[in-house]
UniProtKB/TrEMBL annotation:
Keyword Iron-sulfur among record annotations: no
PROSITE patterns membership: GNAT
Keyword field contains Cell membrane: no
InterPro entries noted in UniProt: Acyl_CoA_acyltransferase (IPR016181), GNAT_dom (IPR000182)
One Gene Ontology molecular-function label: acyltransferase activity, transferring groups other than amino-acyl groups
Chain ranges of the N-acetyltransferase domain: 1-146
The protein, known as: GNAT family N-acetyltransferase
Cross-referenced Pfam families: Acetyltransf_1 (PF00583)
Entry keyword set: Plasmid
Length: 146
């Protein structure tokens, strides 16, 4: 083994700072940009705020990249559910993806979360992985945005 590899330290951690993790993100982004010739990754969020104080009450966050829309997190407090707000958030998120040139969307949800909500809005399951606790699974979904 050469000296460079022999002198490296490998660490397993659950408390790395954003600054410490930045070289992984920037390195992979630079590689992807080189390979594709495209650098279009952008974060995306649609939020619902308290009109009085501006506090974020819930919403959806994710990103767009290489023509794909990714939904990473979606949360509404129970007091705001069943009022059409989830549908409106999802539609605005998808529409922004389309404006950015996305041709498809991807997400995963858990079987006790919202797979039926997404199916109702045209998302289809394309994979499922069992996880814990027993009887639970992560459901991978996609939707054409064309």
């Amino acid at each position: 083994m050469n000296n460079v590899v022999e002198n490296l330290v490998m660490e397993v951690s659950d408390n790395m700072t954003d600054e410490q993790l930045l070289p992984i993100e920037t390195g992979l982004n630079a590689f992807n940009d080189l390979m594709t010739g495209i650098s279009d990754r952008k974060p995306l969020a649609v939020v619902i705020k308290n009109p009085t104080n501006g506090e974020v009450l819930g919403g959806m966050q994710g990103r767009t990249s290489l023509g794909l829309l990714f939904i990473d997190l979606f949360y509404l407090p129970s007091s705001l559910r069943k009022k059409g707000l989830g549908t409106e958030l999802l539609q605005r998120f998808e529409n922004e993806g389309r404006k950015r040139g996305c041709v498809a969307g991807f997400l995963y949800t858990i079987n006790f979360q919202a797979p039926d909500f997404y199916k109702k809005h045209g998302w289809e399951e394309f994979g499922r992985i069992d996880c814990l606790p027993e009887g639970t699974s992560r459901i991978f979904m996609r939707k054409s945005l064309c």
